[in-house]
Amino acid sequence: MKIRVLSTVLLGAALFMVGPAAAQAPATPPAAPAAPAAPAANPLDVIPEKMPFASAYGAPISLDKAEAALAAAVAEANKRGWQMNMAVVDSGGNLVSFKRMDGAQLASIAIAEHKARVAVKFRRPTKIFENAVQSGVVYVVTLDDVVASRGGIPLIENDKIIGAIGCSGGTGSQDEATCMAGAATINKSM
């Protein structure tokens, strides 16, 4: 028994002495860091030959045409049972006509007009901004007055922007479908 205790004590002492010595041993040097990968090409650095979305502005949309576009949008929303707010602005972004359906949410009043204004000012559907944000091109949210959700469509007559329609109150796809019906009264090639 004395031998067993003595052996245990000696073994413990030996381990106690070797442990700190092993801890003082130099560690294996870390591997050299990998060379940084070449940065990916930025697709925004590509210079297009032609200016995108370069439709010229035309004379402002008439009240009759704005009302016709809104009537078609209201009919589409009624057909589907959606409560929408819809705005038509002229080629300068000024409100020409507005429709608020019974039961449409209050927040969408300003949003519908904003979508129309953005579509005419930037000469493109607001869905372009939504797609950009969803694909990681988030710089577009730094542009003044942008709405990055679908539901704003320019109104083009004789290759000139005469205004835009904006719809809000449903999901983005519902807003867009409602706007498309209204825009179709003017944008015959859609």
How would you sum up the global shape?
elongated
Could you describe the largest sheet, including whether it forms a barrel? 5 strands, mixed
* Tally of DSSP β-strands: 5
Helix and strand element order: HEHEEHHEEH
Judged by helices, strands and strand pairing, the structural class is: alpha+beta
Roughly what percent helix? 25-40%
Strand content: 15-25%
Helix count from the secondary structure assignment: 5
Radius of gyration: 33 Å
Low-confidence stretches: none
The CA-CA distance between the termini, in Å, is 99 Å
Mean pLDDT: 86
Write up this protein:
The chain is an alpha+beta fold and 190 residues long. The chain is 39% helix and 15% strand. The protein has helices at 2-23, 63-80, 107-121, 127-134, 172-183, and strands at residues 56-57, 85-90, 95-100, 152-157, 160-168. Strands 1, 2, 3, 4 and 5 form a five-stranded mixed beta sheet that branches. α2 crosses α5 (172-183). It is elongated. The termini are far apart.
Brief digest:
The protein is α+β, with helices and mostly antiparallel strands and 190 residues long. 39% of the residues lie in helices and 15% in strands. Helix 2 (63-80) packs across helix 5.
